[in-house]
Amino acid sequence: INVCTQRSTRYVSAISAARGLHKSALDAAERPTPEETVTSSFGRFIQSVQPRHLSPTVLQRSKRMVLDSIGVGLLGSTTDVFELALQHCQHMYAPDDVSFVYGRQGMKLSPTLAAFVNGVAAHSMDFDDTWHPATHPSGAVLPALLAISDMLHNNSKPSGLDFLTAFNVGIEIQGRLMRFSNEAQNIPKRFHPPSVVGTLGSAAACACLLSLDRSQCSNALAIAASLAGAPMANAATQSKPLHIGNASRLGLEAALLASRGLEASPLVLDAVPGVAGFSAFYEDYAPHPISSLEEDEHSFLIEMQDIAFKRFPAHLGMHWIADAAAVVHKTLIGLKGGSISPNLVQDILLRVPLSKYINRPFPETEHQARHSFQFNACTALLDGEVTVQSFQPEALLRPELHALLSRVRLEHPHDNPANFNIMYGEVEVTLVSGDVLRGRCDTFYGHWRNPLSQESLQKKFCSNAGAVLSNERVERLIEAVEGLDHLDDCKPVLAQLQ
Amino acid sequence: MPLGSFTESFGAAVSSLNTSHLTDEVIRRSKRMILDTLGVGLLGTSTPVFNTVLQCSQRQQALEDSKVWGRPGLSLPPQYAAFVNGVAVHSMDFDDTWHPATHPSGAVLPAVLALAETLPVKPSGLELLLAFNVGIEVQGRLLRFSKEAHNIPKRFHPPAVVGVMGSVAATAKLLGLSAAQSIAALAIACSSAGAPMANAATQTKPLHMGNAARGGLEATQLALLSLEGNTQILDLESGFGAFYPDYVPHPLAEVTPTSHYRWVLEDQNIAQKRFPAHLGMHWVADAAIEARAKFLDKCPNADLSQIKKITLRVPTSRYVDCPLPVSEHQARHSFQFNCCTALLDGEVTVESFSKSQMNRSALKEMLLKVQLENPQDNHSSFEKMYCEIAVETTQGEMFTARCNTFYGHWRKPLSHEDLVRKFRANASTVLRAEVVEGIIYTVDHLDTNQDCSMLWSYMHFNNTFE
């Protein structure tokens, strides 16, 4: 009888009666200090964050991200994979005439499908932004937010600040989630990060823009968790861009489902032994709640950790090796003048981190080429730079490139880990004449330690967006995004993309 | 083995298997699965979660739509029809369970039917059966690539992992994809696989099934548009292996037009549930029913509140250990709840999970008397687990019972009569008698029928809408 009484007191405690928690959840919830769960702290954060919480640095950095992401998406609308994804959506779904599609004037799709194809566009050339810990945060969030903005009635479009707030919530959530695991600090091996944190980032951003209450915000995250996670093996294939497209689409779906009352695990972000939630995607998982916006000084992660924008469309690791090879190229030009002939070169040694999926001696497709140390090094050796054009079929097939590729070997020094914060790239070219030329890059131009100037970023945008939009629209977009935090509603941005 | 060869063998098998490879036993078992799944799906169309996903999906339209079960006049693009119908099938945890553990049919059947409906030339019943079985087979094979898969899952919900692969294989088969396209489809589908266990025992769990069905169909469509993925997807640890800590793939046997093919379903039968709850609950219910019978046998007019203490000896499984469930989803995943319901009523039924039944004071009082024990020899595996119950009364008497194999388990399958009875009970909540009998007849004759399009037409009725 003693046992029964003790147990009945325990079971009928306020927490369990009100929430009917799972046993393991009961244990988790009945710690001495009445802590909020990690999951609910996230829900609370999303719901309570306001524009006033965005510092000038955060505003400035996130506007840069918005601009870059739109430009990259517009360029990406010229790719095969984008066309394929678009056809797929159109065959299966008649136009829902609500949300715009990058680079297809007048064409509309339903919001989730627009988020999907525009997300595919953003990542189609691996040209989109990269953060630390590693993921491509903006492409998962922006398409969904733009799609929702199109969906909302003309009289209730979000203000520029509301839009930026939701965008930053989506970025912040991704950053927070990645800090729950040490494994996330290194170049990924199992799950492609955008498909893991990107989906929840999109759900969070959409929940914020749709003004869901805090329990709906938590549920949106939990529902999104069941839609997250794609294996790394599909990176460097044509399917990779769909990881971002799906992250954006499914995050939006999760928010919409949550808005209709669908419920999911209230402990999805917490570490519950024996029942994996978000922890399913990591070997080592240690979550922390987000601090309250009322009590503590909340700092957005983007403020403390800036982002990298790419100068050419390839995996981030390629930028180090390209800059290192460019140094050697310049030296060679100085020595020999004119263009580089492969006959001069006896041996090319690359000192790079160990990472199977960016080690491709003879890439055959453009996707593989964007993920090949060897290809990017040799291209930069030949041309002095890597550009969008470097991945065109003609460029891939150049005989002089192949000649150089066959002379490349890799070394993986112990002090060069597969980590975007620490890695470096070194190129050592041994000439037939016996001379040895070296180039090294510790921080490429565009990395968060050496960010692109506003001029360089706008130049990249003009080049990308100009591939599909008129000069006038390109200029207006730059202006609209630059002044986003002062716009009463975001129509000026949307109008140029319709 | 050369890299890529496991994946290749899957692509080859999926494209080469044909109707002549279907054995009688496989046909018999799969027809039972189809009937059970349809009934469970129809019943599921009355759930709130089904309504929610339906509302969300309705903003999509298409040139060719597929029928939504239990919603006359409502059609959706095939992926979305597969999605909502898949949600219906798993909405009450009433659908079939296999070993190693997954719910195979709900990921495959909705996708196959939704796709079949859009084809200009409708497949014959045998072709439908073939596609269905390819989808089941691929799931069974993939589950055998990991030892961890043999136990009650902890990290990823199996239908979300293998279910989407089953759906893509089945739909690829139905559309006649080449081996190379099948490989691409498998790879694309893999990027949609995986959902964490934490959402099981919540309202979101049925979406795992719906999304598996949807994702597989979508992957097939993308492969047809020539999208490519990693051709070694099933070989790599960074591919399908990402979902398991111990991943050891094996190739599928070579399939020639005249060879005999050994289907997993032939060697390993399936469990069909008698009531809508997690499979583990069925052992508990059968043991509790037996103990109750012994109790009432001894004391015919006994008052069940005379029970002082109930000990349940069950395997360790955190997500079905729920002492005080609040939602119906939790109740379906609670050893304690199912035990007490069985003790009180002598059975567990669909009604047992209704609000009124769940709120009974007698039930709530009894729940406080339950204690779980996890004996070392009680493995968290649907192949090995048992349930032992010990009921102690205030008079000091003890009634015990043990269930090793519940009725409906693959070792003790439901009789044909009981399976059809379950279908009738489920389908009748939504369909008129003639339509119910029509489905039973059509499925029974699936292997000999050239035109089975009435199947999705039958599923499209609803007697409450007439």
Automatic annotation (TrEMBL), chain A:
Name where it mostly resides: mitochondrion
Among its keywords, does the record have Mitochondrion?
yes
Q: Which EC class is this protein assigned? A: lyase
User: What InterPro entries does its record include?
Assistant: MmgE/PrpD_sf (IPR036148), MmgE/PrpD_sf_1 (IPR042183), MmgE/PrpD_sf_2 (IPR042188), MmgE_PrpD (IPR005656), MmgE_PrpD_C (IPR045337), MmgE_PrpD_N (IPR045336)
User: Which EC number applies?
Assistant: 4.1.1.6
Q: Which GO terms describe its cellular component?
A: mitochondrion
Q: Where is the MmgE/PrpD C-terminal domain?
A: 312-485
Q: Where in the cell is it found?
A: Mitochondrion
Q: Which residues form the MmgE/PrpD N-terminal domain?
A: 42-276
Subunit structure, interactors included = Homodimer.
Task: Name the family.
Answer: Belongs to the PrpD family.
Q: What is this protein called?
A: Cis-aconitate decarboxylase
The species this protein was found in: Sinocyclocheilus anshuiensis
From TrEMBL, chain B:
Per the annotation, which location comes first and is thus the protein's main one?
mitochondrion
* Xref: PANTHER family: 2-METHYLCITRATE DEHYDRATASE-RELATED (PTHR16943), CIS-ACONITATE DECARBOXYLASE (PTHR16943:SF11)
Origin organism is Sinocyclocheilus anshuiensis
* GO biological process entries: inflammatory response; innate immune response; positive regulation of antimicrobial humoral response; tolerance induction to lipopolysaccharide
Q: Which GO terms describe its cellular component?
A: mitochondrion
Q: Looking at the keywords, is Cytoplasm present?
A: no
Q: What is its EC number?
A: 4.1.1.6
Tell me where it resides. Answer: Mitochondrion
Its UniProt entry gives the catalysed reaction(s) as:
cis-aconitate + H(+) = itaconate + CO2
Per the database record, which ranges form the MmgE/PrpD N-terminal domain? Answer: 10-244
What is the protein name for this chain? Cis-aconitate decarboxylase
Sorted alphabetically, the keyword list is: Antimicrobial, Immunity, Inflammatory response, Innate immunity, Lyase, Mitochondrion
Oligomer and partners: Homodimer.
Q: Tell me one Pfam family matched here.
A: MmgE_PrpD_N
* Purpose of the protein: Cis-aconitate decarboxylase that catalyzes production of itaconate and is involved in the inhibition of the inflammatory response. Acts as a negative regulator of the Toll-like receptors (TLRs)-mediated inflammatory innate response by stimulating the tumor necrosis factor alpha-induced protein TNFAIP3 expression via reactive oxygen species (ROS) in LPS-tolerized macrophages.
Q: Lyase as a keyword?
A: yes
